[in-house]
């Protein structure tokens, strides 16, 4: 008798799920039609020859935050936001498919960051180098680019910082990605005879202690990307690669050991670069480049206005200036939007003491 009741209850629950699926399908289709109407209204209201802006980072950040605030479970906030991220991505593609360049090849963490931020309904293009991503955006070949800027273990990505000195780009957003490294092998790998391990130099550094403990005598070979490492392993019997889930899936490799990064909180921050300024959301960051005169106390003069006004600095990096020997520029991230009256006042004070100041962009804090 109990089995009969259980089967009836299960049948009723499945029927309820089917009905809910139909309602979800109907609502998603209605949302997609609204997106098409938005595109029509934008196109009709613009002067002839002017291109409409379909993707609004501040609007999407607001929607995702609202979803997470209103979520009542049992799915956690981030999982719920990811579902809506994909719905929004597909609906936006009906208005205009976004073109996004990222540091390639396919299977890199930068591609994972691009998909996390924009969803899977974008046209994504892998680039061989960070500078190429900047050039694609500058040329208008793509709408946005995604580049790594800092890792919680290894620090700043200097190629990205240097590219901001050479290109006139606007930072439109940021993505934070938890980085999990795995030791990957191919179907032909003889796991008892591994003599070399491929990976990107930063990934090798992030797994240094684990490698010292488990493969102390194996050659470590730095290559251009983790995806490149995974690709090489497919054709070799005596090698392994350190890479992430996306590379493992793309190249059909097996995880010999999982999550081998030395620090469990290992994360990388990526920047979204484009050409459009982002209006304030109330929960923003700003990135600037400042060049100071080479004199004692220059850094102190730069930081005092932030301190006096209680502005939270989240990052400061130094890079050699291209304008002269032993001169430097400072990359600074802080909380707030450059249009905020207080931030405006602080930037004006800094500009009075600086050789040059450039606002790279204000953008919503990472939601996902």
TrEMBL record:
Reaction(s) catalysed (UniProt annotation): chorismate = prephenate; prephenate + H(+) = 3-phenylpyruvate + CO2 + H2O
Domain Prephenate dehydratase: 99-275
One Pfam family named in its UniProt record: ACT
A molecular function (GO) term: prephenate dehydratase activity
Pathway entry: Amino-acid biosynthesis; L-phenylalanine biosynthesis; phenylpyruvate from prephenate: step 1/1; Metabolic intermediate biosynthesis; prephenate biosynthesis; prephenate from chorismate: step 1/1
Domain named Chorismate mutase: residues: 4-99
Keywords: Amino-acid biosynthesis, Aromatic amino acid biosynthesis, Cytoplasm, Isomerase, Lyase, Multifunctional enzyme, Phenylalanine biosynthesis
Superkingdom of source: Bacteria
Localization terms from the record: Cytoplasm
All residue ranges annotated as the ACT domain in the record: 287-364
EC number assigned by the record: 4.2.1.51, 5.4.99.5
Record-linked InterPro entries: ACT-like_dom_sf (IPR045865), ACT_dom (IPR002912), Chor_mutase/pphenate_deHydtase (IPR008242), Chorismate_II_sf (IPR036263), CM_dom_sf (IPR036979), CM_II_prokaryot (IPR002701), G/b/e-P-prot_chorismate_mutase (IPR010957), Preph_deHydtase (IPR001086)
Function recorded in the entry: Catalyzes the Claisen rearrangement of chorismate to prephenate and the decarboxylation/dehydration of prephenate to phenylpyruvate.
Name of this protein: Bifunctional chorismate mutase/prephenate dehydratase
Organism: Metapseudomonas resinovorans
């Amino acid at each position: 008798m109990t089995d009969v009741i259980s089967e009836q209850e299960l049948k009723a629950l499945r029927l309820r799920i089917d009905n809910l699926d139909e309602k979800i399908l109907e609502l998603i289709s209605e949302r997609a039609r609204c997106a098409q109407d938005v595109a029509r209204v934008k196109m009709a209201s613009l002067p002839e020859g002017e291109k409409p802006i379909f993707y609004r980072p501040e609007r999407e950040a607001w929607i995702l935050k609202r979803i997470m605030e209103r979520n009542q479970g049992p799915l956690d906030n981030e999982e719920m936001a990811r579902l809506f991220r994909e719905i929004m991505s597909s609906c936006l593609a009906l208005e205009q498919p976004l073109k996004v360049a990222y540091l390639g090849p396919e299977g890199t963490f930068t591609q994972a960051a691009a998909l996390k931020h924009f969803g899977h309904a974008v046209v994504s293009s892998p680039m061989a180098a960070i500078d190429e991503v900047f050039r694609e955006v500058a040329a208008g070949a793509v709408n946005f680019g995604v580049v790594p800027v800092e890792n919680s273990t290894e620090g700043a990505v200097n190629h990205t910082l240097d590219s901001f000195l050479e290109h006139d780009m606007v930072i439109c957003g940021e993505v934070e990605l938890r980085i999990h490294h795995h030791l990957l092998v191919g179907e032909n790998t003889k796991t008892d005879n591994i003599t070399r391990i491929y990976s990107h130099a930063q990934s090798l550094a992030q797994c240094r202690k684990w490698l010292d403990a488990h493969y102390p005598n194996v050659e470590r070979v730095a290559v251009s990307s983790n995806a490149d490492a995974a690709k090489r392993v497919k054709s070799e019997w005596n090698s392994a690669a350190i890479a992430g889930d996306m590379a493992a899936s793309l190249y059909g490799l097996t995880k010999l050991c999982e999550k081998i990064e030395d620090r469990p909180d290992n994360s990388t921050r990526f920047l979204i670069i484009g050409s459009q300024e982002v209006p304030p959301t109330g929960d923003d960051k700003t990135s600037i480049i400042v060049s100071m005169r080479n004199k004692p106390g220059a850094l102190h003069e730069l930081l005092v206005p932030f301190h006096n006004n209680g502005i939270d600095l989240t990052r400061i990096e130094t890079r050699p200036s291209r304008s002269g020997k032993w001169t430097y520029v400072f990359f600074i991230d802080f909380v707030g939007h450059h249009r905020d009256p207080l931030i405006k006042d602080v930037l004006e004070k800094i500009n009075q003491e600086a050789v040059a100041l450039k606002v790279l962009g204000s953008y919503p804090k990472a939601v996902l």
